[in-house]
Amino acid sequence: MTGRSNVLLAKQIGKLLKKKVHEPVSIFSDGEVRVRIAPNLRRRHVFIIQPTSFPVNDHLMELILMIDAARRASSSEIVAVIPYFGYSRQDRKEMPRVPISSSVVARCLEAVGVDRIMTVDIHSEQQQGFIKGAWDNLYGSYALIPALKKKHLKGIIVGSPDKGGVARATGYAKLLRADGIAIVYKERDVAINNSSETLEMVGEVKGRNVILVDDIIDTAGTITGASDFLKRRGAKQVIAAVTHGLFNGTSLERIEKSGIDKVIVTDTTALRDEVRKHPKVEMVSIAPLLAEAIRRVQTGESISSLIL
Amino acid sequence: MRIVSGSAHSILASEIATILRVPFAPSDIHVFPDGEKRVRIDEKIVGENVVVVQPTSPPVDANCMELFFLLDAVKRSGAASICAVVPYIGYQRQDHVFVSGEAVSLSVVIKILESAGIDRVVCFDLHSIKIPQLFTTTSLSHLSALPLFAELIKKNKWMEESVLVSPDMGGIRRVKQLSRQLGNMPYASIEKNRDLTTGAVSADILHGEVAKRALIVDDIISSGRTVETAAALLKEKGVERIYVFATHPVFSNETPYVLQNAPVEKVFVTNTIAVPKEKQFGKLEVLSIAPLIAEELLKPATSN
């Protein structure tokens, strides 16, 4: 079943698995969510597909209430498939007297009785420890690597737009048989929300095709800043490969104006029409990965062999 | 004691703080472009008895999540005790399974609140008398706005040639209670029928005698249609003047228009929920529950 967050993705997964996808959510006039599951769920395994993207709080509450309804309908196992996990960037106490919001979200899901959480490229993998239950984290590279390979690029350097993404860049470099990696340094002032600044880099990109990898493209400040910087340092082409395309604020405008040549994203979140149709944006579907992972959870096969 | 407020109703929080003479500073709440909230409590609260004020009124999901984040921040900052003042609890009308396959949304909200490690909840006029038992680990202070209404009715001498009216049979307990507080003044009830799928309301039967003046009493006003239908029926039965009393103004956009044009003299509500300027109207009067909350906070929490 699915909430209202990414119905298209849920239906694609349903199609791949040859399963009907139920939509049990409606809304009361005062904005309260109403969930009613029509089919019999007794002793059934229920997979609820709901990325918690914008509007994050409403999509979260839909998910929480769907889990509750499934639990009360006597389903035997409830798996929350959350391709994009909202609040995952608030995963630590970065200053005094703030919550760890991502932990609050995970514990909300656990409190209503979720058995397993499935995510794609969770912002930090330590978050799997927020709950006692199982948490399978998959990788967007499953969909992004084939799309990149299709471009038949020569002389690839994989770039990370910040220090935190070095491990991811190394992984992609190995899979793409790249010549090396480049790291763009960024200093982010936590007091000013969401502003970012490119400063320095390590690595050599002159005349190279750079694949910039990241987990989230939000207002696109980080990725376009890094792209322009890499171009100034002589990069031939800059292609961004990003799992979650949030495209908030003036992100499309920024991408338009920047030296970035292409942004490849997956459909973990529902992409607006203007994003899908944007000439610099290319979308690859995450549905095959999720469908296969769901199938393996159901049959008890290994998921780790699926991880790229 | 420290008062911490979310963004749902900081005016109420500051009113409570003023009465209790404790310092108050609104929390720093930032909303990211994707709707994610980041809350931060500005003042030091370590070792303090912390009171978090946040009705979970519309936008209910955003206000709920903000409350959960605030409680987490308070918990992690070493508060001695945590009390959540949630004058209006969202989702309280979904307190049981109406049709099989539904969620019990209120139970979910309470479960999450309790799992946040709080000691006490203060709330007002819950929709059903069975709701308090859903709280299993926290002390619940279930307060009522009825004494405020009783005081006002006495002050205006509205007990003479008057009848208290519940706009539906489910609210009969409420008018009985108010009647007792007003020296057993007469009461009546309308039989309201709601279609569970369309939500359409029809009112046709009145149980009890009417008088020259009717005082309609309810817990929640959302669309205002229930009040409108009840008032029309009472007018038809020969009532001359109608006054409305309701605790929670969960107004939708159309409510001010519906109520202003209904055949009623005045609509009294309380500030369990903030009524924004654009939802205020000529016949509306808002009574403050801040003194009741302040008084309750000075009493020790009772165990359930």
Short descriptors:
heterodimer; A: 308 residues; alpha/beta; Rossmann fold; 2 domains; seven-stranded mixed sheet; four-stranded parallel sheet; 13 strands; 24% strand; B: 304 residues; five-stranded parallel sheet; 28% helix
How would you characterize the overall build of this protein?
In chain A, the strands form 3 sheets. A 7-stranded mixed sheet of chain A has the order 9-8-7-10-11-12-13, sandwiched between helices. In chain A, strands 3-4-5-6 form a 4-stranded parallel sheet, sandwiched between helices. With 308 residues, chain A is of the alpha/beta class. Chain A has 2 domains: 152 residues, Rossmann fold (3-Layer(aba) Sandwich), CATH 3.40.50; 145 residues, Rossmann fold (3-Layer(aba) Sandwich), CATH 3.40.50. Chain A is globular, with a radius of gyration of 20 Å. Chain A is built from 9 helices and 13 strands. In chain A, 51% of the residues are buried. Chain A starts with 6 loop residues before the first helix and ends in a 9-residue tail after the last helix. Chain B is α/β, with parallel strands linked by helices. Chain B has 2 domains: 151 residues, Rossmann fold (3-Layer(aba) Sandwich); 142 residues, 3-Layer(aba) Sandwich (Rossmann fold). Helix content of chain B is 28%, strand content 26%. In chain B, the strands form 3 sheets. Chain B has a 7-stranded mixed sheet with strand order 10-9-8-11-12-13-14, with helices on both faces. In chain B, strands 1-4-5-6-7 form a 5-stranded parallel sheet, sandwiched between helices. Chain B has a two-stranded antiparallel sheet with strand order 2-3. In chain B, α1 packs across α8 and α4 packs across α5. The longest helix of chain B has 17 residues. Chain B is globular, with a radius of gyration of 20 Å. The mean pLDDT of chain B is 93. Chains A and B meet through β2, α2 and α3 of A and β3, α2 and α3 of B.
